[in-house]
Give the backbone structure.
Amino acid sequence: MSLYVEERKDGSYAFFMEGDLQFDSRDEAIYHESMALPALSLSESLLPEGMHILICGGGDGLVLRECLRFPNVARVDLVDIDESVIELGRTHFAESNQHAFEDARVHVTIGDAWDFLDATSLYDVIICDFTVPRRPEETRIFTQEWYQKLKASLTPKGMLALNTVSPERTPEAFYCLKRTVRSTGLYPVPYRVCIPSFRNQGYGTWGFLLASPRPIGIAHLHQLKCPVTTQQADIANLWRGASFTREQRRIEGKVPIHTLANPTLLPLILNPSIAAPEPLPEPTETEPYSLDALIRAIPIQHAYHTHEMIEAVAETVVGSFRTLDIPRFVDALLERAAQLPKDIVEELERLKEFLRLHVTLLETFWKWCSRVFALLVVIMTLANIVAPDNAFGKGSFGLGRASIGRGFSSSYSVRGTSGSTGTRGSFGFGGHEATGSFSAPPARITSTGFRNTYGRGGSTDIYGNPYRSRVFTYQEPDVYVTYNYNTVYTGRGGGSRAGAGTGSSQSMRESKSLFVADEDLMVLDNGDVVVTLSDTGYLLLKQGHVYLMHQKQTTPIMEMYADSELFLRVSNQLKGQAVAVRNEREAHENWLGWTSWTSNLFPTVAADKREYQNLLDLEARLAKTLQTLGSPPESKPIPLEPGTIELFTGTFLLPNGLIALRNGNGTWIYTDGKQWYPEKEQSGQQPCPPPLSSMLKEVIAKLTKEIEADIQADKKYLQDLAQERASMDVDLIQYNQLGHTLGMAYTVDYGTEEIPAYSAISRTQQEIDNSNYETRQTLAEIEKWEQNVTKLRDFRF
Amino acid sequence: MKHTEPTFQNWGEAVRAAQEALDAKHYDDAKHHLHTALQMGADSTHVRKLQTLVRIEEDHQDKVEQHSGFFGFFVAVVCYFILSFFLQPQHGILLWGVVALGLFPALIGWRVGKWMGYDSPEKARFWKAVRAVGGAVWCYAFMNMIYARMQFSMSSAGGDVTFVWLLVPLVYASIAGCVAGVVCAKLSWRQEGN
């Protein structure tokens, strides 16, 4: 282990271990007093007869010094694994620790604290002053198992003082330690202090844990009376450092417990502000090498980059480089390289000379670098003022695409399930209200579909995401002749039966999907609108009519009842997207106004120009589509029996197991998958067309999957609610404790606010009530969905 | 600069000519005429007063000249800031070009030239106006282009978009700067013989 003592001219010094600052003689008392005195003071009031103390780590003797200031300390055991640190404590730091090692009450053991604790002694106070772990094997003395050992070695009234990590820089690690201690049954009280030398090193405020087998809280710190005079720490106000915001405390619920089996602390120290990874799977024989471990060990992972994280890493890198003294390094190399061949030594001499001569050049270079950097910062700042949040090329506009997609999907096809009331308004239409107005979605192109896919054989959504084009072949609907339920459509060239797929070659056309308005809603290159139901079934919307189509036949299976609400929603969605397209087109126009003449020079401008042309084309097509879509007369709500499930527009799974389809003329057709017949009378039964039967099966399977996914999502949400509820319960207990101890007017932290305890109690109670209400609602929803999904699973043709 | 040497019948004509040159801010001419007047026997008290006046005016002009580039840049920034809200290239490249690259640079160049004074060399006037107007136009175009490009997906932008941002404004800045420079150097002061 590398130890380094940095001596200064003023007689002060700093002690580094493995490059980490352990203490600076100028402010070490803040650290050691803040760590040791609360535990010692609380114990002293309980144990006037004499204390037995164990110090784990702390070979420098400075914690020892604090302990020996208490006259009723009978014995102090100090165990440290590093003999050289103890040697420094006895010699170099002797003045600072006031020759603590010479005290007869002190018993030093050199060894592993883990093994030392296997002995059966009990202690009144245990102080753990370990360095922050930087290697996996060093985290053992921060595990749940370790704290269990400590608890077993504590007397029932004993106190535990723990050095932890920075709650400012590594809050997850700090709360992981707190949670780990709490998991052993000890009651931890976290607090932090500001140590200037630690701050200068970029460590931030430093955290400690005070723990005990009996319940203790922040009130104990508040009432703390230290019997000895402190040099630097403000023990009377230490309680202020124990006050953490609600956001900070909530981190505790998100971090894992650090155990030997699931060591999670080190990633949290190295990757602050990310969740701890799942424990690594045991390597199997077939996969002897796994890169996962290596990837997880990398301090920065792209998906989790945060500003603070990059800053911290950059600070470390810059700090390391600043401490580099290259000429001295070369000198050291020369000393160690005496046995190297002569020519290499000469080369090193030349390198040293080169560095000496060019050091001024380097200074100039750095000066110019800093100027360029300052200029860039100014430009980026100005750009960020002009276009907030975009100037750093983040690329994402936070559109909530998935939610738009799912909401829309619910509206049109298979996600509509009826509620038990059976009214029209209770259908799962994704929250859309049929007001006739629309608002443009805040869509922005975020992908390259309009550059490379649109009009080149593929289809694109509003975000520019490319999709594989789907081909729909059907006869023009204006030639369909509607008879009744058992007569299917005929093409212009002659009659054709359902499933026959024959028709007039003149009116047949093959259309490709050009624009994906939603995952289920497509605009074809001929301007027709298609709502896909399954891999093979789809609805064709044209001129105020809805046709139920099958991919493998060119004529409709049947004309469906044209629901005016469906048309309104499709129309609103397309209008909204048309507005978004127009906005994008205008934005491109603005940009190209400046740059279009450079399209031959810059590929980006050429691509922007192509994108602009495609947007222009789409805008025209959407306008045409909105014209040809049409709108049927306003339809009345359908009274439905409770337990009915809507499969898609005008198609319901009835409680008796039949499927009802509403015909184009408003009458109903029923099918059990084998036969179909009108108006529930089972007379005049005809065999159900195979395409219809297979399509309905697919739709039911798809709907079942989607509802199952929603149930899973809701269950996850319930878990989150429960976790949040637990955290609020803890808050409420703490507020009540503070209120009863210090008065209800006492100011407490509530999130980012400081409010009276009575107000915090009332607000937290309100939040708990809201959480309970939300839980009940979600449970009811899950119950309803589970009923529906059971019916769908049980359905058999 | 080309000077023609006037001939005076008496020192009174020289003093009057000096007075006129001072009013027209032609300080070198004024000093020259006053010197001639002294040589022709003019009242030295009166001439010294005028010489002091010329010196004061000249000092003031030096200060204005010294800051004319900054003033020009400031006026140009204000003008183009206003222009950003009312006129962009997509409103019609011709109209925009005339205003942003013709009218504004010419007016600002003319004003900078006036601030710099009659006596400053054409080359200095040209470059002062180029820097003032060109700098402002570069900033104007750069900011507007960043804003315009940020209005749609940055993820689809190629790496060369940075070059577009830096170089295209440079072209606009060069055009506007040259217009301003030429007006400033050649048109703000009509010199004799030109």
Summary: Residues 68-187 of chain B form one domain. The mean pLDDT of chain B is 85. Residues 44-86 of chain B form the longest helix (43 residues). Chain B touches chain A at residues 88-91, 93, 96, 141, 143-161, 163-164, 168 (CB under 8 Å).
